[in-house]
Amino acid sequence: AQKITQTQPGMFVQEKEAVTLDCTYDTSDPSYGLFWYKQPSSGEMIFLIYQGSYDQQNATEGRYSLNFQKARKSANLVISASQLGDSAMYFCAMREVQGAQKLVFGQGTRLTINP
Amino acid sequence: SQTIHQWPATLVQPVGSPLSLECTVEGTSNPNLYWYRQAAGRGLQLLFYSVGIGQISSEVPQNLSASRPQDRQFILSSKKLLLSDSGFYLCAWSGDRYYGYTFGSGTRLTVV
Predict the structure, then answer these.
(1) Which of A60, B20, B35, B77 could pair with B47 as two cysteines, CB 3.0-4.6 Å apart?
(2) Taking a C-beta distance cutoff of 8 angstroms, is the pair A66, A52 a contact?
(3) Cβ A44–B51 below 8 Å, yes or no?
(4) Local confidence pLDDT in tens for the 115 residues of chain A
(5) Taking CB atoms and an 8 Å limit, are B100 and A100 in contact across chains?
(6) A108 contacts in chain B (CB < 8 Å)
(7) Which of A33, A44, A100 shows the shortest C-beta gap to B103?
(8) Which residues of A touch B45 (CB under 8 A)?
(9) How far is CA A17 from its chain centroid?
(10) CA A20, A115, A67: angle at the middle one, nearest 5?
(11) Dmax over Cα atoms in chain A, in whole Å?
(12) Is A106 exposed, middle or buried (0-12, 13-18, 19+ CB in 10 A)?
């Protein structure tokens, strides 16, 4: 079974600093997708970034990058130049490629950006 | 473009009352559909998923059930709510492979 582990329940960062949110995963499938979502207090789930298991390069989307280390089974999210609006819950997730394509989530990290 | 609608946004129900949450998808056909529940400050737990009309798979045994009467309609139900059913319920469809799921706006259910 697939499993996602986020070991940082909460993080506090000064505005404009870079922040790394940790994520490790476990799966026996050779093919999978890794995602990061942002959930503000409104509850909506906002897609941030995707990394495929066979992608050679780390994914980047604006200020977000995913540090993918396949051998270590880690997929850390890096946010550069943090902003006050980045304060939210962040979830790492892994998706099956075959079958029902279920998306399994970690427990999340609450990020707080201080001015 | 594809959109997903979920209602109601908030719901306060007494213990023992029935529940019906509805989710509909537009702009796609034969989507995989999912119901998740999120306890306060926690991650998302997959409750049910459906790969087609009338096909329901349960991930966690519980007081809830799901149905898919039409291709783009997914319903979460309960005959008698428990206090432990309180939470934030999210409907989703599988969407684009590279962008993960598309989520509804969620329903905050409080059982009193």
Answers:
(1) B35
(2) no
(3) no
(4) 789 999 999 999 999 999 999 999 999 888 999 999 999 999 999 999 999 999 989 999 999 999 999 999 999 999 999 999 999 999 999 998 777 888 999 999 999 999 9
(5) no
(6) 41-43
(7) A44
(8) 105
(9) 18
(10) 10
(11) 45
(12) buried
Phi and psi, residue A39, nearest 5°? -125, 100
Closest to A37 in 3D by CA, of A114, A111, A112, A100: A111
Q: Are A103 and A3 in contact (CB under 8 A)?
A: no
Q: Is the peptide bond before B14 cis (omega within 30 degrees of 0)?
A: no
What distance in Å separates the CA atoms of residue A37 and residue A68, rounded to the nearest whole number? 16
* Residues in chain B closer than 8 A to A105 (CB atoms): 36, 43-45
Which amino acid would we find at residue B47? L
DSSP for residue A115 = -
Q: Residues of B near A (CB-CB distance < 8 A)?
A: 32, 34, 36, 41-46, 49, 51, 57, 88, 90, 92, 94, 97-101, 103, 105-106, 108
> What residues pair up with B35 in beta bridges, in sequence order?
B48, B91
How far is the C-alpha of A2 from the C-alpha of B40, rounded, in Å? Answer: 23
- Contact across the interface for A52 and B98, Cβ inside 8 Å: yes
The CA-to-CA distance between both ends of chain A, in Å, stands at 41
Give chain A positions within 8 Å (CB) of B94.
101
DSSP state of A41: T
Residue A28's region, left for phi above 0, alpha for psi from -120 to 50, else beta, is alpha
